[in-house]
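re the bet — no i am not wrong, look at it urself. input seq straight from the record:
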Amino acid sequence: MEDSSAESVMELDPPQLIVLEADFVKQIVLPPPFQLQVTSGSAEILGVELLPGVTYDFPLNARVDKVILTSFAGGTVMLTHEKGRQKFQQKLQSSTGDPMTSDPFHGNVACIHSLLRDARLNLRTKRGPRVMIIGPMNSGKTTCWRTLANYANLDGYCPVVVDLDPGQQGISMPGVLSSAVQASPDNVFLHASNPCRLARLDISFGRVSIQDDIPLYLDQIWQLKAHTDITVDRLHLAESGIIINTAGWIVDEGLSCLRHIAEVFAVDFMVCLESQSLYKDFLSFAKTLPSNPEVIFVRKPVGMKPRDQAEARDYRASLIRDAFFSDDAALTKCVTLGLQDLIFYRLSSFHRIIASNGNDVAVSNEILRPQEFMLNRLLYISGSSHVQEDLRKWPIRGYAVLLGFNREKNEAYLATTLTLASLTGYVILLYTDIDATGPGGLPFHEFVAD
Protein backbone atom coordinates (compact mmCIF):
# COMPACT_ATOMS: atom_id res chain seq x y z
CA MET A 1 0.00 0.00 0.00
CA GLU A 2 1.31 3.43 -0.89
CA ASP A 3 2.30 5.58 2.04
CA SER A 4 -0.35 8.34 2.41
CA SER A 5 1.99 10.72 4.22
CA ALA A 6 5.15 12.56 3.27
CA GLU A 7 7.96 13.44 5.63
CA SER A 8 10.31 16.40 5.64
CA VAL A 9 13.19 16.95 8.05
CA MET A 10 14.03 20.53 9.01
CA GLU A 11 17.35 21.29 10.65
CA LEU A 12 17.21 24.06 13.25
CA ASP A 13 20.59 25.70 12.80
CA PRO A 14 22.91 25.66 15.83
CA PRO A 15 23.54 28.94 17.65
CA GLN A 16 26.08 31.46 16.43
CA LEU A 17 28.40 33.45 18.64
CA ILE A 18 27.45 37.09 18.18
CA VAL A 19 27.35 38.91 21.52
CA LEU A 20 25.05 36.58 23.39
CA GLU A 21 24.29 33.08 22.35
CA ALA A 22 21.93 33.51 19.39
CA ASP A 23 18.71 31.72 18.64
CA PHE A 24 17.13 30.87 15.32
CA VAL A 25 13.45 31.20 14.58
CA LYS A 26 11.87 29.10 11.84
CA GLN A 27 8.29 29.63 10.76
CA ILE A 28 6.25 26.91 9.07
CA VAL A 29 3.32 28.09 6.96
CA LEU A 30 1.36 24.90 6.38
CA PRO A 31 -2.36 24.05 6.56
CA PRO A 32 -3.22 21.25 9.01
CA PRO A 33 -3.36 18.34 9.51
CA PHE A 34 0.30 17.68 10.23
CA GLN A 35 2.55 16.40 13.02
CA LEU A 36 5.80 17.59 14.56
CA GLN A 37 8.35 15.54 16.47
CA VAL A 38 11.73 16.56 17.87
CA THR A 39 14.12 13.77 16.90
CA SER A 40 17.30 15.33 18.30
CA GLY A 41 18.37 18.44 20.15
CA SER A 42 15.65 20.81 21.35
CA ALA A 43 12.90 23.03 20.02
CA GLU A 44 10.14 25.20 21.48
CA ILE A 45 6.83 26.74 20.44
CA LEU A 46 5.83 29.97 22.17
CA GLY A 47 8.30 29.34 24.97
CA VAL A 48 7.09 25.79 25.65
CA GLU A 49 9.62 23.02 25.08
CA LEU A 50 8.63 20.14 22.79
CA LEU A 51 9.62 16.88 24.42
CA PRO A 52 11.99 14.73 22.32
CA GLY A 53 10.31 11.74 20.69
CA VAL A 54 6.76 12.97 21.44
CA THR A 55 4.47 13.47 18.45
CA TYR A 56 2.55 16.78 18.51
CA ASP A 57 -0.58 16.51 16.39
CA PHE A 58 -2.11 19.49 14.58
CA PRO A 59 -5.49 18.08 13.43
CA LEU A 60 -7.59 19.33 10.56
CA ASN A 61 -9.66 21.54 12.86
CA ALA A 62 -6.66 23.10 14.62
CA ARG A 63 -6.85 26.89 14.71
CA VAL A 64 -3.42 27.39 13.25
CA ASP A 65 -2.05 28.94 10.09
CA LYS A 66 1.56 29.13 11.20
CA VAL A 67 3.89 27.49 13.69
CA ILE A 68 6.92 29.31 15.05
CA LEU A 69 9.72 27.00 16.16
CA THR A 70 12.63 28.25 18.24
CA SER A 71 15.87 26.54 19.26
CA PHE A 72 18.99 27.66 21.11
CA ALA A 73 21.01 24.45 21.13
CA GLY A 74 19.96 23.35 17.65
CA GLY A 75 18.11 20.20 16.79
CA THR A 76 16.13 18.23 14.24
CA VAL A 77 12.37 18.32 13.88
CA MET A 78 10.44 15.77 11.85
CA LEU A 79 7.45 17.20 10.00
CA THR A 80 4.81 14.71 8.74
CA HIS A 81 1.96 15.97 6.63
CA GLU A 82 -0.59 14.72 4.16
CA LYS A 83 0.46 13.93 0.63
CA GLY A 84 -0.62 16.71 -1.68
CA ARG A 85 0.08 19.31 0.98
CA GLN A 86 3.82 19.27 0.67
CA LYS A 87 4.20 22.91 -0.29
CA PHE A 88 5.08 25.07 2.66
CA GLN A 89 7.26 28.08 3.36
CA GLN A 90 10.16 28.31 5.78
CA LYS A 91 11.51 31.63 6.96
CA LEU A 92 14.67 31.79 8.99
CA GLN A 93 15.61 34.62 11.29
CA SER A 94 18.78 35.01 13.33
CA SER A 95 18.75 37.15 16.44
CA THR A 96 20.40 37.58 19.80
CA GLY A 97 18.46 36.40 22.81
CA ASP A 98 18.45 35.03 26.32
CA PRO A 99 20.19 31.61 26.20
CA MET A 100 18.09 30.32 29.10
CA THR A 101 14.62 30.86 27.66
CA SER A 102 13.37 30.94 24.12
CA ASP A 103 10.77 33.07 22.37
CA PRO A 104 10.24 34.32 18.82
CA PHE A 105 10.81 37.98 19.74
CA HIS A 106 14.62 38.15 19.93
CA GLY A 107 14.47 37.15 23.59
CA ASN A 108 12.62 40.36 24.45
CA VAL A 109 9.50 38.56 25.67
CA ALA A 110 11.68 36.46 27.96
CA CYS A 111 13.12 39.67 29.39
CA ILE A 112 9.59 41.07 29.84
CA HIS A 113 8.64 37.87 31.62
CA SER A 114 11.55 38.41 34.01
CA LEU A 115 10.07 41.80 34.90
CA LEU A 116 6.66 40.21 35.44
CA ARG A 117 8.19 37.48 37.58
CA ASP A 118 9.77 40.11 39.81
CA ALA A 119 6.46 41.95 40.01
CA ARG A 120 4.65 38.76 41.06
CA LEU A 121 7.24 38.06 43.73
CA ASN A 122 7.24 41.62 45.09
CA LEU A 123 3.48 42.22 44.86
CA ARG A 124 3.88 45.90 45.65
CA THR A 125 0.26 46.54 44.65
CA LYS A 126 -1.08 43.37 46.40
CA ARG A 127 -1.82 41.86 43.01
CA GLY A 128 0.11 40.39 40.12
CA PRO A 129 1.11 42.45 37.09
CA ARG A 130 -1.48 43.54 34.56
CA VAL A 131 0.03 43.54 31.09
CA MET A 132 -1.44 45.06 27.93
CA ILE A 133 -0.20 44.09 24.46
CA ILE A 134 -0.65 46.82 21.84
CA GLY A 135 0.43 47.26 18.23
CA PRO A 136 -0.83 47.46 14.64
CA MET A 137 -2.42 44.56 12.80
CA ASN A 138 -0.10 41.64 12.03
CA SER A 139 2.55 42.81 14.47
CA GLY A 140 2.58 39.58 16.52
CA LYS A 141 0.37 40.68 19.44
CA THR A 142 -1.36 37.30 19.84
CA THR A 143 1.96 35.41 19.66
CA CYS A 144 3.46 37.70 22.32
CA TRP A 145 0.31 37.40 24.46
CA ARG A 146 0.36 33.60 24.35
CA THR A 147 4.10 33.39 24.99
CA LEU A 148 3.85 35.54 28.13
CA ALA A 149 0.95 33.42 29.39
CA ASN A 150 2.94 30.23 28.76
CA TYR A 151 5.95 31.60 30.63
CA ALA A 152 3.69 32.41 33.60
CA ASN A 153 2.35 28.84 33.59
CA LEU A 154 5.88 27.45 33.58
CA ASP A 155 6.55 29.51 36.71
CA GLY A 156 3.52 27.97 38.42
CA TYR A 157 1.06 30.83 37.91
CA CYS A 158 -2.40 30.82 36.31
CA PRO A 159 -2.83 34.23 34.68
CA VAL A 160 -6.15 35.53 33.44
CA VAL A 161 -5.88 36.06 29.69
CA VAL A 162 -8.14 38.71 28.18
CA ASP A 163 -8.81 39.19 24.45
CA LEU A 164 -10.38 42.49 23.39
CA ASP A 165 -10.11 41.93 19.64
CA PRO A 166 -13.59 40.81 18.47
CA GLY A 167 -12.39 40.20 14.92
CA GLN A 168 -9.52 37.79 15.61
CA GLN A 169 -10.53 36.19 18.89
CA GLY A 170 -7.84 34.18 20.65
CA ILE A 171 -10.11 32.64 23.30
CA SER A 172 -13.67 32.38 22.09
CA MET A 173 -16.00 33.07 19.15
CA PRO A 174 -16.03 35.96 16.66
CA GLY A 175 -17.62 39.19 17.80
CA VAL A 176 -17.12 38.78 21.54
CA LEU A 177 -14.79 40.15 24.20
CA SER A 178 -13.52 37.30 26.34
CA SER A 179 -11.38 36.22 29.25
CA ALA A 180 -10.26 32.90 30.73
CA VAL A 181 -7.89 31.47 33.30
CA GLN A 182 -4.92 29.82 31.61
CA ALA A 183 -4.07 26.92 33.86
CA SER A 184 -1.40 25.22 31.72
CA PRO A 185 0.75 26.13 28.70
CA ASP A 186 -0.96 26.58 25.35
CA ASN A 187 1.61 25.37 22.83
CA VAL A 188 -0.37 24.25 19.80
CA PHE A 189 -2.51 27.31 19.02
CA LEU A 190 -5.68 25.54 20.12
CA HIS A 191 -8.64 27.81 20.68
CA ALA A 192 -11.98 27.78 22.47
CA SER A 193 -11.82 24.02 23.07
CA ASN A 194 -8.37 24.24 24.62
CA PRO A 195 -8.52 22.38 27.96
CA CYS A 196 -5.79 24.59 29.42
CA ARG A 197 -8.23 27.53 29.59
CA LEU A 198 -10.77 27.53 32.43
CA ALA A 199 -13.57 29.81 33.66
CA ARG A 200 -14.11 31.25 30.20
CA LEU A 201 -16.22 34.39 30.07
CA ASP A 202 -17.73 35.88 26.89
CA ILE A 203 -19.30 39.33 26.65
CA SER A 204 -21.43 40.15 23.60
CA PHE A 205 -20.34 42.79 21.08
CA GLY A 206 -21.87 41.32 17.94
CA ARG A 207 -19.49 42.75 15.37
CA VAL A 208 -15.96 41.97 14.18
CA SER A 209 -14.83 45.60 13.91
CA ILE A 210 -14.84 47.87 16.94
CA GLN A 211 -15.37 50.82 14.60
CA ASP A 212 -18.95 49.67 14.03
CA ASP A 213 -20.03 50.67 17.55
CA ILE A 214 -17.28 52.30 19.62
CA PRO A 215 -19.52 53.39 22.55
CA LEU A 216 -20.79 49.82 22.98
CA TYR A 217 -17.22 48.49 22.77
CA LEU A 218 -16.06 50.85 25.54
CA ASP A 219 -19.03 49.88 27.69
CA GLN A 220 -18.42 46.15 27.19
CA ILE A 221 -14.80 46.59 28.30
CA TRP A 222 -16.15 47.80 31.64
CA GLN A 223 -18.47 44.79 31.84
CA LEU A 224 -15.66 42.32 31.10
CA LYS A 225 -13.39 44.02 33.62
CA ALA A 226 -16.04 43.71 36.35
CA HIS A 227 -16.60 40.00 35.63
CA THR A 228 -12.86 39.35 35.41
CA ASP A 229 -12.28 40.91 38.83
CA ILE A 230 -14.92 38.55 40.26
CA THR A 231 -13.15 35.56 38.67
CA VAL A 232 -9.77 36.61 40.07
CA ASP A 233 -11.19 37.03 43.58
CA ARG A 234 -13.26 33.83 43.51
CA LEU A 235 -10.33 31.67 42.36
CA HIS A 236 -7.70 33.52 44.44
CA LEU A 237 -5.57 34.37 41.40
CA ALA A 238 -4.60 37.94 42.26
CA GLU A 239 -0.86 37.24 42.24
CA SER A 240 -0.95 35.59 38.80
CA GLY A 241 -1.94 38.82 37.08
CA ILE A 242 -3.79 39.60 33.85
CA ILE A 243 -2.47 39.55 30.26
CA ILE A 244 -4.54 41.56 27.77
CA ASN A 245 -4.56 41.27 23.98
CA THR A 246 -5.96 44.19 21.96
CA ALA A 247 -7.15 45.01 18.45
CA GLY A 248 -4.83 46.41 15.79
CA TRP A 249 -6.62 49.75 15.29
CA ILE A 250 -4.06 52.20 16.70
CA VAL A 251 -5.04 55.58 15.21
CA ASP A 252 -7.79 58.13 15.87
CA GLU A 253 -10.62 56.55 17.91
CA GLY A 254 -8.72 53.26 17.96
CA LEU A 255 -5.98 54.97 19.93
CA SER A 256 -8.59 56.34 22.32
CA CYS A 257 -9.94 52.81 22.83
CA LEU A 258 -6.46 51.56 23.76
CA ARG A 259 -6.10 54.35 26.29
CA HIS A 260 -9.52 53.45 27.70
CA ILE A 261 -8.40 49.82 28.17
CA ALA A 262 -5.24 50.91 29.97
CA GLU A 263 -7.27 53.07 32.36
CA VAL A 264 -10.03 50.54 33.03
CA PHE A 265 -7.65 47.66 33.79
CA ALA A 266 -5.09 49.90 35.57
CA VAL A 267 -2.26 48.16 33.73
CA ASP A 268 1.28 47.98 35.09
CA PHE A 269 3.04 47.16 31.80
CA MET A 270 2.35 48.12 28.18
CA VAL A 271 4.14 46.03 25.57
CA CYS A 272 4.15 47.93 22.29
CA LEU A 273 4.96 45.94 19.15
CA GLU A 274 6.44 47.35 15.97
CA SER A 275 5.04 50.91 15.95
CA GLN A 276 7.49 53.55 17.15
CA SER A 277 4.85 56.28 16.99
CA LEU A 278 2.47 54.28 19.20
CA TYR A 279 5.33 53.60 21.61
CA LYS A 280 6.15 57.31 21.92
CA ASP A 281 2.49 58.18 22.39
CA PHE A 282 2.07 55.67 25.21
CA LEU A 283 5.29 56.78 26.87
CA SER A 284 3.67 60.17 27.33
CA PHE A 285 0.24 58.74 28.15
CA ALA A 286 1.63 56.39 30.83
CA LYS A 287 2.81 59.38 32.88
CA THR A 288 -0.81 60.50 33.29
CA LEU A 289 -2.01 57.19 34.76
CA PRO A 290 -2.15 56.50 38.51
CA SER A 291 -0.71 53.02 37.95
CA ASN A 292 2.41 54.58 36.33
CA PRO A 293 2.86 51.66 33.89
CA GLU A 294 6.16 50.78 32.27
CA VAL A 295 6.10 50.93 28.44
CA ILE A 296 8.27 48.43 26.54
CA PHE A 297 8.96 48.38 22.81
CA VAL A 298 9.38 45.07 20.95
CA ARG A 299 9.95 44.43 17.25
CA LYS A 300 8.05 41.55 15.70
CA PRO A 301 9.99 38.57 14.27
CA VAL A 302 10.90 39.17 10.65
CA GLY A 303 9.74 35.69 9.63
CA MET A 304 6.15 36.03 10.86
CA LYS A 305 3.55 35.82 8.10
CA PRO A 306 0.70 38.36 8.29
CA ARG A 307 -2.91 37.30 7.74
CA ASP A 308 -4.67 38.91 4.80
CA GLN A 309 -8.40 39.71 4.87
CA ALA A 310 -9.39 36.41 3.26
CA GLU A 311 -7.37 34.43 5.80
CA ALA A 312 -8.93 36.44 8.63
CA ARG A 313 -12.41 35.57 7.37
CA ASP A 314 -11.47 31.91 7.02
CA TYR A 315 -10.13 31.94 10.55
CA ARG A 316 -13.42 33.29 11.93
CA ALA A 317 -15.34 30.70 9.91
CA SER A 318 -13.19 27.93 11.38
CA LEU A 319 -14.04 29.05 14.94
CA ILE A 320 -17.76 28.81 14.19
CA ARG A 321 -17.38 25.49 12.39
CA ASP A 322 -15.49 23.96 15.31
CA ALA A 323 -18.10 25.16 17.80
CA PHE A 324 -21.09 23.74 15.92
CA PHE A 325 -19.78 20.80 13.90
CA SER A 326 -18.12 17.55 14.87
CA ASP A 327 -15.12 16.14 13.02
CA ASP A 328 -17.42 14.25 10.63
CA ALA A 329 -19.09 17.56 9.58
CA ALA A 330 -22.31 16.76 11.45
CA LEU A 331 -24.10 19.37 13.53
CA THR A 332 -23.54 18.51 17.18
CA LYS A 333 -26.88 19.88 18.52
CA CYS A 334 -30.10 20.80 16.72
CA VAL A 335 -33.22 21.87 18.61
CA THR A 336 -36.81 22.79 17.79
CA LEU A 337 -38.35 25.55 19.90
CA GLY A 338 -41.61 27.42 19.79
CA LEU A 339 -41.36 30.84 18.21
CA GLN A 340 -43.21 32.23 21.21
CA ASP A 341 -40.30 31.15 23.42
CA LEU A 342 -37.67 33.14 21.49
CA ILE A 343 -36.94 36.85 21.83
CA PHE A 344 -34.49 38.50 19.46
CA TYR A 345 -32.46 41.56 20.37
CA ARG A 346 -29.47 43.36 19.00
CA LEU A 347 -27.24 45.17 21.46
CA SER A 348 -26.43 48.68 20.33
CA SER A 349 -25.31 52.00 21.71
CA PHE A 350 -27.34 53.90 19.16
CA HIS A 351 -30.84 53.22 20.50
CA ARG A 352 -31.83 53.03 24.13
CA ILE A 353 -35.10 52.11 25.78
CA ILE A 354 -36.25 52.53 29.35
CA ALA A 355 -37.31 49.25 30.91
CA SER A 356 -40.29 49.05 33.27
CA ASN A 357 -37.92 48.87 36.24
CA GLY A 358 -36.38 52.21 35.24
CA ASN A 359 -33.08 50.85 33.93
CA ASP A 360 -31.60 52.39 30.80
CA VAL A 361 -31.22 49.35 28.54
CA ALA A 362 -28.87 49.57 25.55
CA VAL A 363 -30.86 47.45 23.14
CA SER A 364 -32.56 48.16 19.86
CA ASN A 365 -34.53 46.38 17.18
CA GLU A 366 -36.58 43.99 19.28
CA ILE A 367 -37.70 41.46 16.68
CA LEU A 368 -41.07 39.95 17.47
CA ARG A 369 -40.74 37.23 14.89
CA PRO A 370 -37.76 35.89 12.93
CA GLN A 371 -37.09 37.27 9.47
CA GLU A 372 -35.31 35.77 6.47
CA PHE A 373 -32.23 37.96 6.93
CA MET A 374 -31.67 36.31 10.32
CA LEU A 375 -31.07 32.86 8.88
CA ASN A 376 -27.52 31.53 9.14
CA ARG A 377 -26.39 34.42 11.34
CA LEU A 378 -24.39 33.76 14.48
CA LEU A 379 -26.58 34.44 17.52
CA TYR A 380 -25.52 34.80 21.13
CA ILE A 381 -27.62 33.12 23.81
CA SER A 382 -27.89 35.69 26.57
CA GLY A 383 -27.23 34.69 30.14
CA SER A 384 -30.32 36.64 31.10
CA SER A 385 -33.81 35.18 30.81
CA HIS A 386 -35.60 38.50 31.41
CA VAL A 387 -35.82 41.38 28.97
CA GLN A 388 -36.32 43.79 31.85
CA GLU A 389 -32.62 43.56 32.70
CA ASP A 390 -29.71 45.42 31.13
CA LEU A 391 -28.58 42.81 28.64
CA ARG A 392 -25.14 44.43 28.28
CA LYS A 393 -24.20 43.19 31.73
CA TRP A 394 -24.94 39.52 31.16
CA PRO A 395 -22.27 37.10 29.87
CA ILE A 396 -23.10 34.81 26.98
CA ARG A 397 -24.45 31.36 27.86
CA GLY A 398 -23.80 29.84 24.46
CA TYR A 399 -24.27 30.28 20.73
CA ALA A 400 -26.96 29.50 18.19
CA VAL A 401 -27.74 29.72 14.47
CA LEU A 402 -31.32 30.07 13.25
CA LEU A 403 -31.61 27.40 10.54
CA GLY A 404 -35.26 27.98 9.67
CA PHE A 405 -38.74 28.57 11.02
CA ASN A 406 -42.29 27.47 10.28
CA ARG A 407 -44.93 30.05 11.09
CA GLU A 408 -47.82 27.61 10.61
CA LYS A 409 -46.37 25.24 13.20
CA ASN A 410 -45.02 28.16 15.24
CA GLU A 411 -41.60 26.45 15.38
CA ALA A 412 -38.00 27.56 15.03
CA TYR A 413 -35.10 25.26 14.15
CA LEU A 414 -31.73 26.12 15.64
CA ALA A 415 -28.24 24.76 15.87
CA THR A 416 -26.87 25.45 19.34
CA THR A 417 -23.80 24.86 21.44
CA LEU A 418 -26.02 24.05 24.43
CA THR A 419 -28.12 21.04 25.25
CA LEU A 420 -31.88 21.12 24.73
CA ALA A 421 -32.54 20.73 28.45
CA SER A 422 -30.79 24.03 29.19
CA LEU A 423 -33.01 25.94 26.75
CA THR A 424 -36.18 26.26 28.81
CA GLY A 425 -38.57 29.15 29.16
CA TYR A 426 -37.84 32.34 27.27
CA VAL A 427 -34.57 32.32 25.36
CA ILE A 428 -33.04 35.69 24.52
CA LEU A 429 -31.00 35.54 21.33
CA LEU A 430 -28.71 38.47 20.56
CA TYR A 431 -28.49 39.13 16.83
CA THR A 432 -25.03 39.78 15.32
CA ASP A 433 -23.54 41.00 12.05
CA ILE A 434 -21.58 37.75 11.69
CA ASP A 435 -22.48 35.35 8.88
CA ALA A 436 -22.22 31.84 10.30
CA THR A 437 -21.95 30.28 6.84
CA GLY A 438 -18.78 32.25 6.25
CA PRO A 439 -16.30 31.96 3.40
CA GLY A 440 -15.38 28.47 4.53
CA GLY A 441 -18.78 27.23 3.31
CA LEU A 442 -20.19 26.00 6.62
CA PRO A 443 -22.99 23.60 5.65
CA PHE A 444 -25.78 25.16 7.73
CA HIS A 445 -27.97 25.37 4.62
CA GLU A 446 -28.13 21.58 4.50
CA PHE A 447 -30.04 21.55 7.77
CA VAL A 448 -32.63 24.24 7.08
CA ALA A 449 -36.08 22.75 7.60
CA ASP A 450 -38.74 22.85 4.93
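see?? The chain has six helices and 25 strands. told u. also Residues 214-234 form the longest helix (21 residues). so pay up
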